[in-house]
Design brief:
single chain, alpha+beta, 219 residues, 13 strands, 47% strand, 13-stranded antiparallel beta sheet
Length: 219
Amino acid sequence: MRSARNSKLFKTVLGVTAAAVLTLPLAACGADDESAGGGKPEPVAQVNDLSGDNTAVLLDPGFVDALTSLKLKPGVVGDAGFADGSFSFPITGGDVTYYKPGSIDPYVQGLVEHDGSGISLTAGDTVAELTNFEIDPGTSKLYGDVRVNGESAAKHAFIFSLDGRTLKPLQTKGDDAILEGTKVMISDDAAGLLNDTFKTDAVKGGLLVGTATITIATK
């Protein structure tokens, strides 16, 4: 039973940070402008000093059912929120530059920071906190800090890998740009870390956790 519990617990953790994945496909929404010369192309769009709104991950119904049946206790840390089956994390900083897909590799570059928020997972006497998420769209990776029972277990750990192939077309609402549909998977590094923490081998790299949405304030 402990192995099954820990597997579901980690899946929940993954759902939280999924939002990061959305930054990867943003470049696909740009125009076709390129520099006339043979050097580095001109960016299609560039956003400096990111500040708002948030990234969110809608948990898969199967994960929610597992949490209920196994009596696992997910929670939020700091400024994170949880409503209607989704975790949300405020964007606190960073920058993103978008190039025409195929004009440069990677065509989305920068960092998206979510300092001061995260999720907690409680199983028995063990409490794991994943916080300070940082998305690197150029590498399709999401990093974060991990604490177990109040002690640091890892800094800037590679927690999730991102797949934007299921991204929906760009949406707008007021001054916000919204991207929805990116899949979030647990990384091999994170699987090993969680297995060590919860004394199991049930957590597997590549596990699909949920669907991410990122909402960026354009003004």
